[in-house]
Write a structure and sequence with these properties.
This is Probable malate:quinone oxidoreductase. One of its GO terms (molecular function) is L-malate dehydrogenase (quinone) activity. Pfam families: Mqo (PF06039). By secondary structure, the chain is of the alpha+beta class. The protein has one domain: FAD/NAD(P)-binding domain, CATH 3.50.50. About 35% of the residues lie in helices and about 25% in strands. The protein contains 14 helices and 20 strands. Strands 4, 5, 6, 12, 13, 14, 15, 16, 17 and 18 form a 10-stranded mixed sheet that branches. Strand 9 and strand 10 form a beta hairpin.
Length: about 500
């Protein structure tokens, strides 16, 4: 027997949860089903211990504000990422006001965001970054200091034990957040199920093929008992993290040709020592090492998970051919096709610095990891910290007409020309920008419905169709309203 449904969401993470929630608000009568191969949702990239939970708004992440050859700071990407996070905040605020997210404190905590640098050149860079951002409406409240006493007040662990002759600088902003994307995912999916959607755990998608009516035939296997089944869906979204690439390859859509993936693993150091945790309440980001991918920018983070506060430091990048933490050692090799082989080879040859960096991280001893921690927290004691495996990320490799192939950081939606199937590739900033990414999916896959949906889309996201940063008064209004709805400081 084959069920006929409207929407199949593959993967029980924040992306599927967000898209499903939007579609249920727009089309309450649609039959929506979520298929997750593990025994619970939010077990991979959306799990709070697999990501930093920063709520990426470019308030502290220095990789979004590169220094140009003339010495000026390019804030284009920082503004874009902040804009995207504001869309997510608006969507969450709407759901809070509608009672779909009854307790925002269960997934969101007010946590100041900081950037911390040392060395004269880095101090000069941070000062220029601050001057480029401070008057922008989305970065209002950003502060800068080179005074160790001020920095110690912002983040007490970062100054004691540091050389008094070392130039140091930091920026600080109260409007930052810590987000438990696991809790948020579970709340969204609970709301979906309450609204009539079906959640199928321990269901692995084994095949995706075109149906004769233009939809998609999904063959699945129940992991308990290995029972095969199949469904026909009018629309399919592949929100399966690193496994999205091989699933889209199974679909055979021409749009996935030329895409490959480069997996990057990672580790954290974590402490739950209450004496240490009580002295730090911020997310403190530094500068990335040469050759490091953006997701490996070092940071000392306050994390609030299930009401308990811990500190994370890292991530320490590494390599494994798996596309998921629970994936297969053959994932990378199984994703190689004739159409992505050259792009993958070209990327490998042109990113030797990245390969060297990853090898160094793999070979790093525990003492070397602790020394990296002490660059942020000079008096850190190794016995207070233990290692924790971070989430697996798959960076995008794609064809390039000039270079043959490029390694692309960030995320990218890949959709069939007719909009009947779409998937998300890539990593950071990922979860923080789930709402704008899913709005992009709606526009690309349902262009004939957007005008009819527009009033509801604007209720869900008041800035939909506009640019927040282009209107300082609108930016101030929306920032204030969402902070109030989400019960976080502005």
């Amino acid at each position: 027997m084959t069920d006929h449904i409207d929407v199949a969401l593959i993967g029980g993470g924040i992306m599927s949860a967000t898209l499903g929630t939007m579609l249920q608000q727009l089309e309450p009568e649609w039959d929506i089903r979520i298929y997750e191969r593990l025994g619970d949702v939010a077990r991979e990239s959306s799990n709070p211990w697999n990501n930093a939970g920063t709520g990426h708004a470019a308030l502290c992440e220095l990789n979004y504000t590169p220094e140009k050859p003339d010495g000026s700071i390019d804030i284009t990407n920082a503004v874009k990422v902040n804009e995207q996070f504001q869309v997510s905040r608006q969507f969450w605020s709407y759901l809070v006001n509608e009672g779909r997210l009854p307790d925002p404190s269960a997934f969101l905590s007010a946590t100041p965001h900081m950037s911390l640098v040392w060395g004269r050149d880095n101090v000069d860079y941070l000062r220029k970054r601050y001057e480029a951002l401070r008057d922008h409406p989305l970065f209002a409240g950003l502060e800068f200091s080179e005074d160790p006493a001020v920095i110690r007040r912002w983040a007490p662990l970062t100054i004691p034990g540091r050389s008094k002759t070392q130039p140091v600088a930091a920026t600080w902003i109260a409007a930052g957040t810590d987000v438990d994307f696991g809790a948020l995912t579970r709340m969204l999916i609970d709301g979906l199920v309450d609204g009539g959607a079906q959640l199928h755990l321990e269901h692995r998608v084994t095949s995706i093929s075109r149906d004769r009516d233009g939809g998609w035939l999904l063959k699945l296997r129940h992991e308990v008992g290995f029972t095969p089944l199949q469904v026909r869906a009018k629309f399919v979204f592949v929100g399966a993290g690193g496994h999205a690439l091989p699933l889209l390859q199974k679909s055979g859509i021409p749009e996935i040709r030329g895409f490959g993936g480069f997996p990057v693993s990672g580790q954290w150091l974590r402490t739950d020592n209450p004496e240490v945790v009580a002295q730090h309440s911020a997310k403190v980001y530094g500068k990335a090492s040469v050759g490091a991918p953006p997701m490996s920018v070092p940071h000392l983070d306050t994390r609030v998970v299930d009401g308990e506060t811990s500190l994370l430091f890292g991530p320490y990048a590494g390599f494994t051919p798996k596309f998921l933490k629970t994936g297969s050692w053959f994932d990378l090799f199984g994703s190689i096709r004739w159409h992505n082989l050259i792009p993958m080879m070209q990327v490998g040859l042109r990113n030797l610095d990245l390969l060297k960096y990853l090898i160094g991280e793999l070979l790093a001893s525990r003492s070397a990891k602790e020394e990296s921690l002490r660059a942020f927290y000079p008096n850190a004691r190794g016995e207070d910290w233990y290692e924790l495996t971070a989430g697996q990320r798959v960076q995008i490799i794609k064809k390039d007409p000039e270079k043959g192939g490029v390694l692309q950081f960030g995320t990218e939606v890949v959709a069939a020309a007719d909009g009947s199937i779409a998937g998300l590739l890539g990593a950071s900033p990922g979860a923080s920008t789930a709402a704008p990414i899913m709005l992009d999916v709606l526009e690309r896959c349902f262009p004939d419905k957007i005008e009819a949906w527009r009033p509801q889309l604007q209720r869900m996201v008041p800035s939909y169709g506009t640019t927040v940063s282009a209107d300082p008064e609108l930016a101030k209004k929306l920032l204030t309203e969402t902070a109030s709805a989400l019960a976080i400081s502005r």
